[in-house]
Amino acid sequence: xxxxxxxxxxxxxxxxxxxxxxxxxxxxxxxxxxxxxxxxxxxxxxxxxxxxxxxxxxxxxxxxxxxxxxxxxxx
Length: 75
Fold this sequence. Notes:
29% helix, 2 helices, alpha+beta, 4-stranded antiparallel β-sheet, single chain, Alpha-Beta Plaits
C-alpha cells in the first residue's frame, strides 16, 4: 500500500470548487488554508494507480500545483 501526502495550490477563486471535486472523488482532505492550499492523502496499491490518481488531481480546473510531500510504503 502506497500512502502519500499531497499539497495542492489552487487559484483562490477555485479553492472551494477544487475541494468539492476532491470530495466527489472520495479523496481524504486534511486541511485548507487562507493561502488557497489544500492538504490531502492518497492511498493506492501500486505506483501506477497512485500516479494515475495524482494526475487526475493535477488536472482539476483551478489546481496550479499538486506535489507529493510525503510517501510511505506499507508492505
